[in-house]
Each structure stands twice: as C-alpha cells, then as structure tokens.
Amino acid sequence: MDSAEVVIAGGGIAGIAAAHELAVELGIGPMMIVDDQPPMSVTSDKSTECYRNFWPGPDGAMVALMNRSIDRLEALAAATGNAFRMNRRGYLYVTADPTRISLLRATATAAAAQGAGAAREAGYVSNAECGADGTHGIVDFSRYPTGSDLVTDRNLIRRYFPALAPDTAAVLHVRRAGWMSGQELGMQLLQAALGRGVRIEPGRVTAIERDARGVTAVKLSTGTRIATRRVVLAPGPWLREAAKLTGDDLPVLTELHTKVAFHDHRGVVPRDSPLLIWADPQALGWTDEERAVLAEGSESDSVLLGELPPGAHTRPEGGSGSDVALMLWAYDARPVPERWPPAFDPIFPEVVLRGLARMLPGLAAYIGRAPQPIVDGGYYTKTRENRPLIGPLSTPGAYVMGAFSGYGLMAAAAGAELLAAHLTGSELPDYAAAFVPARYADPDYAQRFAGVGDAGQL
Prior knowledge:
Number of helices: 12
Strand order of the largest sheet: 6-7-8-5-16-17-18-15-19
Structural class: alpha/beta
CATH architecture of the largest domain: 2-Layer Sandwich
Radius of gyration: 22 Å
Distance between the termini: 45 Å
Mean pLDDT: 94
CATH superfamily of the largest domain: D-Amino Acid Oxidase, subunit A, domain 2
Low-confidence stretches: none
Number of domains: 2
C-alpha cells in the first residue's frame, strides 16, 4: 500500500498551488496529487485568466485575500522572469447610462474602504504613460497606479479609449488588475512541486477511511489505497460530491461558463487594451426573423429576447503578432449538473459578439460573418455568496480548498498559503475566518450576505 504525508484530490490550479506551497515552500512530503484528468485541463484554463483586487463586501476579506495573492504572484513573476506573462493592464468597466455613474462611484468608494486602493476622479494616467504594458518580459509593477479611476469626461474617454461606443458616459479603470497565462503559471508551480518529490497519481478519490483520530487512508477509482493522515479536497466541479466522503455537505453549486476565442482581423479590440467590461444590461438587436426563430426555440433561446445582464467582456490574447480576442458573457449562468466533457450552446458566440458590439461598435462588422471561433469553457464551482472554501472539514485531517468560481488563478497563491497555515497549525491571517466551511454555522452569516448575490462574478 502506498503512503503519503498529504494527498491532494484535484490537479487544477487549487490542487497544484496547494502542493507547491506544502512541498516547495514548507518542505512537507511525500505528497500525491490525485486526478483522473490532465493537470489544469478541467476549469483552470477556461476563464479569461485575469486577476483583480476589486471586490464587493460586505467586508474586506476578499480584497485582503486578493491583495495577498497578487503580492505573491508579482514576486513569482519577478523571480521567474515573468514566465507566466503577468501584466497590469487593469479592468475597464464601461457604461453608456449616466444614471449608472453613481453606482460605479459607490462601488469604487467601497472597494477603496476595504483596501483596494484610492478611488480617484481626476488626474487620469494611462497605462502607456506609466511605462511598458508588461505583457512579456519583466514588469515593474511599482510603476502602475493602484485603486481605480472614474473618468466621466467624454473627451478624455475618446482620447484614451477611442474604440468604445460614442455614447459612452463613463469608464471605471480598476488598476491593480490584469491577466496572465494560467497554463504557464500552473506548469511553473507544478514543475517545482514535482522537483520536490510530489507525485501525480491517476484516478479519483472514491473513499476516505477514518478512525477515531480522523483520516487514515484514501481509496482511488483505480483500486489504489493510499495511507495518509491528511487529505486536501480540491477537485473543482466535483467538490460537493467529494466532501460527502468526509460527511460534509458543502453549500456549493456549479455553473457552466463559456469562452470564445476568434481572430479579430479587423483589429477592433485594441491590442494594448485593459479587460473591457460592459457594465449595462441590454437587449440585443435581433431582426424580426431572428426573433421569430428564437421564440420558437428552447426556453434558453427565448430568454435572449429580453433584457440580458451586464458583464459582457473581452480582451486581447497573445503577443504583438496575435489578432486573437477572448469574449465571455455569463448571461446564461445558472446551476447545472456536472457533465464531462461539457456541451456548449451553439448560439453563444453570436450572442456574446452582439453583446460586445454595444460596447465596441466595430465588432458589428463580424455579425453573421465572424471567423470560425474556438469555443471552450468549464464549470465554475461557487458558494452562494461567491467566496471560496479554505480550511478544515468536519473530519480531523480533512481540508478543503475549492469553490473558487472563476477566480481560482488569481486567488490560488494566497489560498494555498492559507490552507497550509490551517494544515500546519500556523498563525492564521485576519481574513481566515471568512473562508472556513464552519462559517455557515454562524447564524448571523447568512443575514450579513443577504442581497449580495453573485458578489463580483463576471
């Protein structure tokens, strides 16, 4: 029978970051990562691969977690020659509705109060005026502003962001934000962990054995049994199923999120752009014939005839020679059962293109004649308040690191550090209590989050 100091169930960014933290940073071993899929292949490479420290409340725990994670990512970028191509382009929230400016202002003010940096409305400085954008090579992140800049001067908006719709009323540029190559980040961490003796074991954890002291072993779908006193559950979309092996019923759900990549040969999405996010709800401009077809279709098709939520977003992908743009919009986000591999709605690329054309009118030239897109996506596993689960489960020796929704890449560095503190009994940061599963035993917890909704989900 095999044995390990720690068994990690899941080879996505959460499991890999946990293995790296425990083996490389703390020297714990031997250790195994157990997964029946290749590393980073289920959800971790399916998002826009972005990061931000701009999060809603009702407290500053998410901002604190993300600030710590970004600190660690920046340090890793410096130490590796920016092997995973981290930049600081920012997020740009865009509205054409003057009545929504107050909402952007209030959101920025609240984020500033929670530690995301100052909320400014004067003295805007572009990324180009800060220095190189840092998509490739070593980035001096200290040259970039933090906080956010609300710009309502339409002349300034046209000067700095000429591709946006002419009726754009305001933009909010969140500055400690950007993106990276998630696959390269994951491989950087994984290779270092493998170099410290971490093993990858194919299969899925199907049973967790226990005695009076807690975890004693795990059984795999392959028939392998591994003796261990500590197991970390980081299985992505299968978190709720896995937690039942320790007797825990975690309040998580899964949503299928779709990503489109296509060749923007017209150059509509600026290659030096931040992540662009349309902050207004909208109804799509279908023709009468298209509306008739959608009305006769499925329930999900008929939804497209009404007002759709904010959040359509896009960014350039690749280096200076690339013309690829990524497009996402969670207009259809809803709890779904996990099926692998997932199936995607064939109309999604057309819908997200039409939605983004409201923000970037140049994209309208592609409607009905877009280059063949690449459609991908994955399951986002989340709690009802969209905060992760990091910490001990009810069985001694069992821990969870999951429910990272679409922000696992940005949160994994601090999440792994927090998990390691729980596992080793080290001092916990102030924000630790906000992410432990035991928080749901607090009768006041649900009330504090009433009305928060998706809490920052894009």
